[in-house]
Amino acid sequence: AVAVGERGLVIRRMMAPDLRKTQYGYIDDAFKRVDAALKVYEPLPQTPEEVVLWKEFVPAWDAWKVAHGKIRTLAEQKDRLVAAGTSLDSPAIAALDGETFDALLAARTEFTDAESKLNKVIELNANEGVKGGVAIETTAKQSSMLILTVTLLGTLLAIGFGVLLSRSIAMPLKKGVDFVKELSLGHLGTR
């Protein structure tokens, strides 16, 4: 969005104040989104490799912001000259346009460098995300196997306990039934 705004400021035919204001708005909004994203990203835990890549990115980003600042300063200077009545065909405006265009090309180089460094950070995070996903998947499979094993073991223990409990109840009952049968047959000395 910043590049769109910058290009709009360089185009000689886009001198209407509302168009210029829109271009500055694109730039300002883009920087607000970047600042908000940085506030979210910077406090997050980072791998040692990510810290190194981030430290390479930040100076490149700052260098691009300085280069962008030069473009904006030149564009605002042009806006003031035109607002003061200087003709768009004047040598001063032509010189300013040339200087702004050169600054745009220099900023493009700075931006490409910063973008390349940021892409390395993004690629590293994407790879770490894939590794994390594989680790989560492995843990989930292990957890499923553990749950299945514990459930099976619990079921076997419950069956075993049930058999023991039923025997501990059934044996005395059988003895009681046998005792009552013996009594009914007249064997009064049975114990």
Largest sheet: none
How far apart, in Å, are the first and last alpha carbons? 100 Å
Work out the helix count: 4
Give me the strand/helix succession: HHHH
Overall mean confidence score, pLDDT: 90
Indicate the topology.
Blueprint: H1 2-10, H2 17-41, H3 48-83, H4 91-184
Helix pairs in contact: 1-2, 1-4, 3-4
How would you sum up this structure in a few lines?
The chain is mainly alpha-helical and 191 residues long. It is built from four helices and no strands.
Descriptive account of the structure:
By secondary structure, this protein is mainly α. The chain is 86% helix and 0% strand. The protein contains four helices and no strands. It has helices spanning 2-10, 17-41, 48-83, 91-184. Helix 3 packs antiparallel against helix 4 (91-184). The longest helix is centred in the C-terminal third of the chain and has 94 residues, at 91-184. The termini are far apart. The model has no long low-confidence stretch (mean pLDDT 90).
